[in-house]
Each structure stands twice: as structure tokens, then as C-alpha cells.
Amino acid sequence: MGIVVAALAGSQNATARAPTLSLDPSRLPRLGTIDERFQSYNVEMVEVTGGRFWKPYRTSASAPATRGADNAGNIPAGGNPDLFAYREPIDLSNPRLRRLAAALAPAYLRVSGTWANSTYFAESDEAPATPPSGFSAVLSRKRWKDVIDFARAASAEIVTSMATSPGARDATGLWRSDQARRLFAYTKSVGGRIAAAEFMNEPTLAAMGGAPKGYDAAAYGRDFKAFAAFIRDSEPDVMVLGPGSIGETAAPQSSRPSSSEFISTRDLLAASGSSIDAFSYHHYGAVSQRCSPGQTTPEAALSEAWLASTSQTLAFYRSLRDEFAPGKPMWLTETAEAACGGNPWASTFLDTFRYLDQLGRLARAGVQMVAHNTLAASDYGLLDEKTLRPRPNYWAALLWRRLMGTIVLDTGTHHGMHLYAHCRRGVRGAVTLLVINTDRTNAASLRLPVSSERYTLSADHLQGAEVKLNGAALDLGPNDDLPPFAAMTSPPGSIEIGPATITFLNVEDAKNPACN
Question: Which of 7, 156, 229, 431 is 20 to 30 Å from the Cα of 52, by its Cα?
């Protein structure tokens, strides 16, 4: 019952070196479901306030001056100033930005990041010239309303985190809820809504985020319980996320503070209890060459080890979830190609294999939300931060949004290609397959018993900014119109999946009962 998958002998054509995989989309069983906002994105708090974020590798000579600029001195504790470049506050009213974000709807918009831990929420529309003592940046009411208005225009639900630096504490060092209370109250007063909140961004690296000196798991546990009690009492409709950890399974461990400052997730959970609604965590497979040269290379970008690293991180945190918060959904609230702004190839088609493979893997594993970092900042942004034109990962995200529904199907275990299946978004009985060929030289072959509509992403240069759909370059129209995604019809039988290409196959006539 269920899956029909068989390895057949290769023919003497272009796929001679790869076996043909046969699959019947009508018989793929239901594996589970994902949140309708599964594919989501981050806008860093420092983008909203203005400030210093990861410097792009190709920095413009006309970068904005920082003298007298908003939050110009704000960088993570212990950070090397040379790694950062000043940004003016992002214009969240920009029509192109709003249109492109809305095309990915519905989504969660997470506004957080290391900078959020020490950002003061002001009581005025304009930010004070300098942040109060114990804070490093200021978020004005006007800037936060821009976030609320953007979220509404983009059909996004807001996820955020709290200020936790010394300025948010009383004289004894205890976290106070007054800043959080002010943020939630203002949000509601202007018709906005915060759907979910983490207490702190990346508490495993609390020192880097500006926590008080000597901050440890016991202090976190005490503070988190106060935060959770505040949410339950004052904002009962808000999901409590936690802990939002990073740095325990992959290369970003090398970017940790000293071992005495790093706090393990096990210790955080043991101290804070199980009062979370979803278990949040972060994943980066490496630290970019901006911060730690040589951790990964373009040559490794299509390797099984690189693509599987997100599964390893999930397995680590899921085991802790099972121990401390059994049954709670898993949310990956921050991820991208590499930490520290991404590598130079994070903005190219080469990273699109990781982007889509990660979505496929984690949906199959039952993760409910994956928030890419970022929408439009530094090298790992879905959009170029200067022009706001789509990068290859944006086009991949748009195809996922249009084609992959919330019901996940089981394609079984196999070798030779990365294969994922979901019920087609919005079409009863239909199935969409995602087929990723990571082999740079050999084609693969998939045999289907019915016809399908094919959408193949490819590039003449893997490390190029241009991506093609069925051979035609993707770009915005003259009025920022999205291009038509014209499918190619593939008859029943074998479908060749070219080397280093990604193909969505829409099977309208699958008649899969799991998709009814």
C-alpha cells in the first residue's frame, strides 16, 4: 500500500549513469501537515531602528554617513566594528518591498535578532537622540507602527522578542515587564497584533546579546518564568516561544563567547520549566567567511553533509523538546546559508539548493515554521537590500508558496535525488513534487504514470545572480509585476532532471485521496 518506488535500469541516454526512479503520485500517503505560514522570514530589529548590521561583501562607496545617525554605534557585545556597516532604517512602506513580501503570504514576520535584546522601546513617535542607560538602540513608536502596517500589507503575523539588557532590569538585576508591556499595549492601540514572542534572542549566547555580566542559566530561568507569567496574565493570545537557542550542533560553535559565557540549552530548559507553546531554535550550517574564513566552501554547497546539517540540528533540539516540552511544535525562527550575514554565494543560485532542500526536509520532519534570515539585508537576504530586486532564493520561495500545500506526503526512502511531495496548494486531489538534483555533472530521471506541469529552476552559472525558469530568465516587469510562471507539460513516462537543477512537478490529475 502507499508508495510505488522502484529503481529501474538506466538507459543509454543522458541519464545513463543515474537510475530511474518510478513514483505514482496518486498513492503517496499523508505524512503530516505544516502551518500555513510555514515559510516565513526575518526583518532584523536593527533594520527597523537603523544601525550597524553585517557589511555586504560588495559595499557601496556611497554608504550612508553614520555621524549623528540613528543607533549608529549599536553592534553586538564584543563584535568587530569592521564587520558591520551602517544602514538607515528600512523603508517598510516601499511599494516593491510590500508587493514582493505579500506574494509570499501568508507568513510570519519575525522582528528580532541579537540587536533586539538591547533595544529600548520609546514612548514617542521620534526616537531620543541617545538610548537610555542599559540599552544600545532605540525603537520609536513610528518605526514600530511601520512594522505593524507592513505586516498588515504583507498578510504576515508578527513574531518578536523582548529587551533583556541591563536597562530592562531593576536594581537587583531582575527582568521587568514594563518595556514589554509598553510594546504590546502600543501594538494593540494602533490595531496591530503580536502572534508569538520569544523572551530573548539566542540565550545560549546571552553575553553577545548584551545580557548582564555573569548571566547564567539560573538567571535566565528566573527571567523566563517572569516573562511567561506576564504573557499568560496580560497577553493570553500570544504564543510563548523558547528558548531560541543556537551554537550547539554545527560550525557556529566557533563563534561562541568563551566557554564560561556559553549557556547550554539543557541548562536553560532545566531552569525555565516547560511553559512554552512551541520550541524555537536557530540553525546555520556555518559561520560566513566574513567572521571565520574557511568553514565552508562553494564546492561543498551541494554536498550531502552540508544539506543534512539542518536535520542534525533538528534532531539535537527535538530530543531536548521531547525531554522538557513533549508534544510542543518545533519552530525554526532563524536560519540562512551561514551566520554573520552569509557567504558571498548566499545571494546566488548555488544556495537555492539548500534553501528548498531545507524546507522539504523540515516539512517532512514536522517542523511547523521556518523563518529565513533575512528578507532584505546583507548577503543572505531574499531581496537585494539596495535595489529590493529578487535574488534566486526569492524566486524559489515564490514557487514553494504557489505550489506546495500544507499536507505533506511520504515519498519513501531512496537514493540519487532529493524528492519531496506535498498536496498541491488549493487544488483538491493534486500533488506537487519537488525534485532536487545536486549532481553537478549527471542528470537524473523520474518516471510518472501521468502527465505533469514542469517548473525547472536552473542557472548558467551556479554562483550567478540570475536564475531561469524553464530556460527563461526571471525578473520583475516594468511595473514590478511578477513574471508569469509558465509551466512545460511533461507527458507520462520518464522526466529528465538535469545536473544541478531544481524541478517542481505539478500533477493535477493525481487523484490522491490524501489531498481531498
Answer: 156
pTM of the model: 0.93
The three-point CA angle 31-32-37 to 5° equals 140
| Sequence-ordered list of residues with C-beta below 8 angstroms from that of 425, at least 6 positions apart, any chain | 401, 402, 403, 404, 405, 406, 432
Task: Report d(CA 241, CA 178) in Å as an integer.
Answer: 19
DSSP helix/strand/coil, 337: coil
What DSSP letter does each residue of 365-378 carry, written as one string? TT--EEEEE-SSSS
- Whether residue 169 contacts residue 163, with contact meaning beta carbons closer than 8 Å, is answered with no
Could you tell me if 132 and 426 are in contact, meaning their C-beta atoms sit under 8 angstroms apart? no
Q: What are phi and psi of 64, to 5 degrees?
A: -65, 145
Instruction: Report mean pLDDT in 10-residue bins for the chain, 516 residues.
Output: 32 51 96 98 97 83 52 69 91 98 98 96 88 96 98 98 97 97 98 98 94 95 97 97 91 49 95 94 95 91 96 98 97 97 96 98 98 96 97 98 98 87 96 97 96 98 97 96 96 96 97 96
- Which residue intervals of 302-373 are DSSP H helices? 304-324, 352-364
Query: Which DSSP string do the residues of 406-475 spell out, in sequence order?
Result: EEEE-----SSSEEEEEEETT-TT-EEEEEEE--SS--EEEEESS-EEEEEEE-SSTTSS--EETTEE--
Cis omega (within 30 of 0) for bond into 212: no
Quickly list H helices, 469-512.
none
DSSP string for 98-147: HHHHHTT-SEEEEE-SGGGGGEEE-SSSS--SSPPTT-SEEE-HHHHHHH
Phi first, then psi: what are they for 224, rounded to 5°? -65, -40
Q: What distance in Å separates the CA atoms of residue 9 and residue 152, rounded to the nearest whole number? A: 53
Cell reading at 451: 502527465
Q: Which three cell numbers stand for residue 55?
A: 557589511
- Of the candidates 310, 232, 322, the one whose C-alpha atom is nearest the C-alpha of residue 269 is 322
Q: Which residues contact 202 (CB under 8 A, 6 or more apart)?
A: 114, 208, 209, 244, 245, 246, 247, 282
* Cβ contacts of 183 within 8 Å, gap of 6 or more: 121, 144, 160, 162, 194
Can you tell me the distance from the alpha carbon of 8 to that of 26, in angstroms, rounded to the nearest whole number?
A: 20
Give the separation between CA 252 and CA 488, rounded to whole angstroms.
Answer: 41
**Cβ-defined contacts of 141-147 (< 8 Å, 24+):** 141/186, 143/48, 143/49, 143/89, 144/48, 144/183, 144/186, 144/187, 145/190, 145/192, 146/48, 146/89, 146/92, 146/93, 147/43, 147/48, 147/92, 147/109, 147/111
Distance from C-alpha of 406 to C-alpha of 32, rounded to nearest angstrom: 8
Q: Are 117 and 161 in contact (CB under 8 A)?
A: yes
